[in-house]
Write a structure and sequence with these properties.
Helix content: 55-70%
Number of helices: 18
Shape: elongated
CATH class of the largest domain: Mainly Alpha
Oligomer: single chain
Length: 581
């Protein structure tokens, strides 16, 4: 169980100290007006019993109306103020959470999962909002009302007031003592909700595959099991919370029974007036409502604490990839050098003893079997992860000495899995850039060989691309991603099998276009197609995380090694594809 989440809320509450103090003042005035009403009513009853005096009764009536108006006005002000605090805290905390998520490393993202983070960023904030918007104003009003009410009761009858105070103190103490149990139960509810959210997000994004493999019923069954588990945890929370919630009302009812009996005896003995007796009965009604409000406020406190704890757990997560002390931001030309680089995962090396020199403006081709470490090697250049052994130098400087954002601005990566957003095609290409001239966009589209596809789109560059590029073909999505990288005119371009969904002729044209700008850009190309790397200045062949061959296309063919064998297989496959059926 994580520590109480209230400690994560305190830094956000400090910036609203002035509003919190003002809220306490509003709560004090409103509670005072509410607490003084029974006293005024008791005086009026005693005046009635002593003899009817209409002008004085009119003043009592006006006094009660004034107190009710004061209560309504300051309760409204407190409600608006608590809403303002709720907006500010939720907004700032959500911004911090989103910024933290964006900075998390791959390991942390995999640990939480998209659905779990989505649940924390949405559902949990609802309970933080409820804590401030309703819980704060209810607790402030209830606490002041209980305090002032008990004090005024003590002035009338210390004996009866002491009975009420002791019983309410026991009730509140039990609620606070059991609060951690309720908070833990609610934390389990939110954890299971995150599992449901993660399951739904993962399987809804793969709905086509589920349909193709006729897995709808199996997925529905698995989802039902998760939902049932969530329902069980929710029921357990409700049972625990419901067992505590009626406690204040029960205590007040017991106190009322005692006051009725003991107060009656005191009236008979003359130690308590009828007006004071009525005053106590009305006070018990007010204190009953205050106790119920305090119980609800404690419930919101427990829920808000659990939710803040889940959010705070992410906020405390420090990214493994971050700026080093004294990081620099000097211009980058694109010269790369890897010295004995190694990457370890669990108990094995994914990459080991990788050394290669890539002059600025040259192209490096990286080929090898699936799982040989090609994509991992590219991820090291932009510091998606850092090597576990060796060093990577950019323009002669260790990559870890550059400011992370500065280094990444000099690099454009086109990953294996193309991710497009539900926005116009032009916005997908210029994503993250502002005021990009049209000629820059058209030049990138032409280099990516996407220009011929514009006539097929209903609104050209203004065509709305569906979620994850659903309205585009696989090749169009990859070429859009390439155009997105080229429009940035990066010093270093990383293509991670970015031509897999592009036909051979178009792929050759794109590679040729990239080659024409070779002097301005360092390019690393990972590809299963040797045609995409044959014009590279140098090519390395990876096997089990090691470089087993290196050289130009001609030199590698002459070695008659793995590269040559791969090239022959590719030629045979091309001849087979060209044979008439």
């Amino acid at each position: 169980m994580r520590d109480t989440g209230l400690r994560f809320l305190l830094p956000y509450m400090r910036r609203y100290r002035g509003l919190l103090l003002l809220g306490l003042l509003y709560g004090l005035i409103g509670a005072g007006a509410s607490a003084f009403s029974p006293t005024l009513l008791g005086w009026a009853v005693d005046e009635l019993l002593a003899g009817v005096r209409v002008p004085l009764l009119g003043l009592y009536a006006l006094g009660l109306i004034g107190l009710a108006g004061t209560l309504a006005f300051f309760r409204y002000q407190l409600r608006m103020l608590s809403g303002q605090i709720a907006v500010g805290v939720s907004y700032q905390m959500s911004q911090d959470l989103f910024n933290t998520i964006l900075a998390l490393d791959q390991r942390a993202l995999q640990q939480y999962g998209t659905g779990d983070l989505l649940s924390r960023a949405t559902s949990d904030f609802i309970y933080i909002w409820r804590f401030y918007s309703a819980g704060f104003q209810m607790s402030v009003h209830a606490l002041f009302l209980l305090g002032i009410g008990c004090a005024l009761m003590a002035l009338t009858s210390p004996l009866l007031a002491s009975i009420v105070v002791v019983m309410l103190a026991v009730s509140i103490g039990v609620q606070v003592g059991l609060g951690r149990i309720v908070e833990r139960a609610f934390d389990r509810v939110q954890h299971n909700l995150a599992l449901v959210s993660a399951f739904a997000q993962e399987h809804l994004s793969a709905v086509r595959m589920l349909t193709a493999y006729s897995q709808e019923q199996a997925v529905v069954h698995a989802f039902r099991q998760l939902n049932e588990q969530y329902a069980r945890q929710n029921l357990a929370f409700v049972l625990r919370s419901s067992a505590i919630t009626p406690l204040p009302s029960l205590v007040v009812m017991l106190a009322r029974a005692i006051i009725l009996g003991l107060g009656g005896i005191m009236i008979i003995r003359g130690s308590l007036s009828i007006g004071q007796y009525v005053q106590f009965i009305v006070y018990l009604g007010l204190l009953s409502n205050a106790a119920v409000q305090l119980s609800r406020a404690l419930e919101r406190l427990q829920q808000g604490s659990a939710a803040a704890g889940r959010i705070g757990e992410v906020l405390l997560r420090q990214p493994e990839i971050a700026d080093a002390p004294g990081a620099i931001a000097v211009p980058i030309r694109g010269q790369l050098r890897l010295e004995r680089v190694g990457v370890r995962s669990q108990n094995r090396w994914i990459l080991q003893d990788i050394s290669v020199d890539i002059p600025a403006g040259t192209t490096l081709g990286i080929v090898g079997a699936t799982g040989s470490g090609k994509s991992t090697l590219l991820s090291l250049i932009g510091r998606i992860r850092d090597p576990d052994a060796g060093q990577i130098f950019v323009d002669g400087v260790d990559a870890r000495q550059y400011k992370l954002q500065h280094l990444r601005r000099a690099i454009a990566l086109v990953p294996q899995e193309t991710l497009l957003f539900s926005m116009p095609l032009r916005d997908n290409i210029t994503f993250g850039l502002a005021n990009v001239p049209d000629d820059y966009v058209l030049r990138a589209i032409k280099a990516a060989r996407l220009s011929n596809d514009l006539v097929q789109l209903p609104q050209g560059l203004a065509t709305l691309v569906g979620e994850r590029g659903a309205s585009l073909s696989g090749g169009q999505k990859q070429r859009t991603a390439i155009a997105r990288a080229l429009v940035r005119d990066p010093q270093i371009l990383l293509l991670d099998d970015a031509l897999a969904s592009v036909d051979t002729q178009t792929a050759a044209e794109i590679v040729a276009e990239l080659g024409s700008a070779r002097q301005q850009r360092t390019t690393l190309i990972v590809s299963q197609r040797l045609a995409a790397v044959r014009e590279a200045d140098q090519i390395i062949v990876l096997e089990d995380g090691r470089i087993v061959e290196r050289g130009t296309h001609r030199e590698l063919l002459a070695q008659q090694g793995q590269y040559a064998a791969m090239y022959r297989r590719e030629l045979q496959q091309a001849e087979t594809d060209d044979e008439p059926e």
